Amino acid sequence: MSRNSALTTITAYYAAFNAGHVEGMLACLHDDFAHHVNEGATRLGKAAFAAFCAHMSETYREELRDVVVMANEDGTRGAAEFIVQGTYLKTDPGLPEARGQRYVLPAGGFFALKDGKITRVTTYYNLADWIKQVSHG
């Protein structure tokens, strides 16, 4: 795999996200896939990730802006930095009540890739900042 291939795969993953196209995101994932988040348990496999995406689609409407994608030379690792612009649609258990609040949140993702597909996505954002925004929004 090359750097350009990794950049293409990660860019396609985020383009599918912004289009609300879960199948497109899943197409970028390797069969041996793990989704790590900064809050919560690791999700293993495409089916667990698809269920997560379904929950997120019900609960949040998000678009990623100013996406910058990077990759190492051999295309096995990558990263992206972006701004999440979202609306909190439905109360997520354990979080503040949803009332259609809008939020803007810097975030990032780290990737491992194999055979042209993503084997790991690790997502980071500041949950305390998000809670502050939706609690006062």
Structural write-up:
The protein is α+β, with helices and mostly antiparallel strands and about 140 residues long. It has one domain (about 5-85, about 105-125): Nuclear Transport Factor 2, Chain: A, CATH 3.10.450. The chain has four helices and six strands. The chain has helices at about 5-20, 20-25, 45-60, 125-135; strands spanning about 30-35, 45, 60-70, 75-90, 100-115, 115-125. It has a six-stranded mixed β-sheet. A hairpin with a 5-residue loop joins strand 1 (about 30-35) and strand 2. The mean pLDDT is about 95.
Assembly status: single chain
Number of domains: 1
Distance linking N and C termini: 44 Å
Main sheet makeup: 6 strands, mixed
Strand content: 35-45%
Mean pLDDT: 95
Topology:
Layout: H1 3-19, H2 22-27, E1 29-37, E2 43-44, H3 46-59, E3 60-71, E4 77-88, E5 102-114, E6 117-125, H4 127-136
List keywords for this structure.
137 residues; alpha+beta; Nuclear Transport Factor 2, Chain: A; six-stranded mixed sheet; 4 helices; 42% strand; globular
